[in-house]
TrEMBL record:
Catalyzes a salvage reaction resulting in the formation of AMP, that is energically less costly than de novo synthesis. This is Adenine phosphoribosyltransferase. The keyword Signal does not apply. Residues 33-166 form the Phosphoribosyltransferase domain. The gene is APRT. Signal peptide: none annotated. Keywords: Acetylation, Cytoplasm, Glycosyltransferase, Phosphoprotein, Purine salvage, Transferase. Pathway: Purine metabolism; AMP biosynthesis via salvage pathway; AMP from adenine: step 1/1. It is found in: Cytoplasm.
Length: 180
């Protein structure tokens, strides 16, 4: 499958759900994408191709709770590197670093185990979707605390009107699909 054919396949498997989880939010539901093995494979392959073409060395893929856990581990496997979970508050044992943040429809706190990434390691942060960028920004802050280097914030879907990529600067952001 060509890259644009793959993108089209991915796009056609993202479902729009108005007013979820709260009134006024247009929710982009990736469930149909996960359910279709070819579409899901196309997404993972495009993420992998992009990373291989862009970075000579990546040490870890770090995924954001919860939907970053769907894309991060298969991607890390294909790259032959480790996966690190960044979780919502209270889920990780042992010493942790935590950062609170605001997202498109709420407030939450993200955590990482203090020894999850060694200082100086090169990390790609992965999630399904970038909206306001609050969640990804918090993940970047966690990486700063561990003295890791964020190569890029990588998402399947970017909601351009919410200007998440601007909020993340100077960190780089890459998305497969963009919506207004
Ligand atoms: O750019 P933002 O405005 O921060 O929004 C994006 C975040 O919102 C969603 O996660 P959510 O917090 O709904 O949690 P979930 O993955 O557990 O469903 C999505 O998976 C991103 O992580
Ligand atoms: N509009 C949206 N659709 C799906 N996930 C989201 N996370 C934040 N905003 C979202």
């Amino acid at each position: 499958m060509e890259a644009c054919e793959r993108l089209q396949r991915i796009r056609s498997h993202v479902r729009l759900v108005p007013d979820f989880p709260s009134p006024g939010v247009l929710f982009r539901d990736i469930s149909p994408l996960l359910k279709d093995p070819d579409a899901f494979k196309a997404a993972i392959e495009l993420l992998e191709t992009h990373l291989r073409a862009t970075y000579p060395r990546i040490d870890y893929v770090a995924g954001l709770d919860a939907r970053g856990f769907l894309f991060g581990p298969p991607l890390a496997q294909r790259l032959g590197i480790g996966f690190v979970p960044i979780r919502k508050k209270g889920k990780l044992p042992g010493p942790t670093e935590s950062v609170s943040y605001a997202l498109e429809y709420g407030q939450a706190e993200l955590e990482i185990q203090s020894d999850a990434v060694e200082p100086g390691k090169k990390v790609v942060l992965v999630d399904d979707l970038l909206a306001t960028g609050g969640t990804m920004h918090a993940a970047c802050e966690l990486m700063k605390r561990l003295k890791a280097e964020v190569l890029e914030c990588l998402v399947v879907i970017e909601l351009l009107s919410l200007k998440g990529a601007e909020k993340l600067q100077p960190f780089r952001c890459h998305s497969l699909l963009q919506y207004d």
